[in-house]
């Protein structure tokens, strides 16, 4: 059983990456092979709308034709039994690193016909993991759930039932006093990071273990 976790945060050791590392650890604890890929390490673009992946008779039919540093990542996702995509919310959607990756991962498999199923290999399970500044109760207020629902729908159309994992009210800076910040209750954020984030890490570990079973 192979799990690929993809980190769409440009930060390789903060909220999203730490949670994904726990997903990987949870999967490994159940005997899976698991890898955490940081998109920040790769130089690539989003879909360029070349349509080689849809052209009848093309050698790229069903697979992204662009050759760049995302190609091996797409290949690993293609081969994996389990995919976990993790991203911070940036302006209420995935980061541009993750969005560009999703365009290429998803669109290669999409068909403009309802006569056939999508060209994606079915997966055992998939998950989307998001971190964000807003508190859980404010998600509907700021419509943070709209983009998440779309991505979940695409993941389910292409791959498998998709679990959504949310980590809210995250600690963005180690030292808030170094920045101009007056929209957050900083002591409350620091308290939450100390008390709730460790539980979020445990939830992420449990997610990794659960996906494998
Ligand atoms: C460019 C940018 C845009 C952001 N937009 C949002 C947003 O729309 N909603 C939100 O709740 N948090 C937003 N955030 C905060 C991040 O989602 C949050 O701090 C996240 O946990 C960071 O993940 P990381 O620590 O893994 O980098 C934004 C952060 C940045 C840098």
- What's the shape? globular
Total strands: 6
Distance between the termini: 10 Å
Specify the helix fraction band: 25-40%
Structural class: alpha/beta
Helix count equals: 6
The parts where pLDDT drops under 50 for at least 5 residues are none
- Taken in chain order, the helices and strands follow as EHEHEEHEHEHH
User: What molecules are bound to this protein?
Assistant: flavin mononucleotide
**Text of the CATH class:** Alpha Beta
Strand content: 15-25%
Largest sheet features: 6 strands, mixed
Oligomerization: single chain
CATH architecture: 3-Layer(aba) Sandwich
**The CATH H-level homologous superfamily:** Flavodoxin domain
Number of domains: 1
Query: What would you report as the Rg, rounded to the nearest angstrom?
Result: 18 Å
Mean pLDDT across residues: 97
CATH topology: Rossmann fold
Task: Provide structural commentary.
The chain is 36% helix and 17% strand. By secondary structure, it is α/β, with parallel strands linked by helices. It has one domain (2-212): Flavodoxin domain (Rossmann fold, 3-Layer(aba) Sandwich). Strands 1, 2, 3, 4, 5 and 6 form a six-stranded mixed β-sheet that branches. Helix 1 (15-29) links the parallel strand 1 (2-7) and strand 2 (33-38). The longest helix is centred in the last third of the chain and has 16 residues, at 197-212. The protein is globular. The structure holds flavin mononucleotide (FMN). Flavin mononucleotide binds next to helix 1 and strand 3.
